[in-house]
Amino acid sequence: MGYQESFVTTTNKKYFNDFLDRIKKLGWGFYDAHLTYPTYIVNVKENVYGEFTKKRIMLKKNKKYVYFTGDRHLQRSANNVLDIADNEETVLNLDIIEFT
After folding, report:
1. How does pLDDT run across 6-53, given as a tens digit for each residue?
2. In this structure, are residues 40 and 77 in contact, taking their beta carbons and an 8 Å threshold?
3. According to the 3-state scheme, what is the secondary structure of the chain?
4. 96 or 84: whose pLDDT is higher?
5. Contact predicate 59/7, CB 8 Å
6. Per DSSP, what are the bridge partners of residue 71?
7. Whole-model pTM?
8. Sign of CA dihedral 56, 62, 68, 69
9. Which residue, of 63, 70, 89, 92, has the fewest CB within 10 Å?
10. CA separation (Å) from 82 to 13, 50, 55?
11. Positive or negative: CA dihedral 83, 89, 92, 98
12. pLDDT at 82
């Protein structure tokens, strides 16, 4: 338990709309039950670097991310965010960037 903010995207841009479709399919009820919410879509125009080092790019230029807020549990893995079982394969290949 605890509050967390995460930016989630696909490793390949061509799957981003599929990612959004999966979020919509799960619906508000799924996220509300887990107290975690896909809050908005972020379109990054310039690289965003880590707070403690300017060498690590946290959010990449020209990529879109879904910004999740809420309880930490659901945001611990990309599979959790999309309600994908550990043994279920997905073509989305998600990157999850966590901010606690």
Report:
1. 888 888 888 889 889 989 999 999 999 999 999 999 999 998 887 776
2. no
3. CCEEEEEEEECCHHHHHHHHHHHHHHHHHHHHHCCEEEEEEEECCCCEECCCCCCCEEECCCCEEEEEEEECHHHHCHHHHCCCCCCCCCCCCEEEEEEC
4. 84
5. yes
6. 3
7. 0.81
8. positive
9. 89
10. 17, 26, 30
11. positive
12. 79
Do residues 74 and 36 make contact, with C-beta atoms less than 8 angstroms apart? yes
Q: Which residues have CB under 8 Å from 39's CB, separation 6+?
A: 67, 68, 69
- Mark 39-61 as b/e (b = at least 16 C-beta within 10 Å): eeeeebeeebeeeeeeeeeebee
- Nearest-angstrom CA–CA distance, 7 and 29: 20
pLDDT tens digits for range 64-91: 999 999 998 888 776 778 777 655 555 5
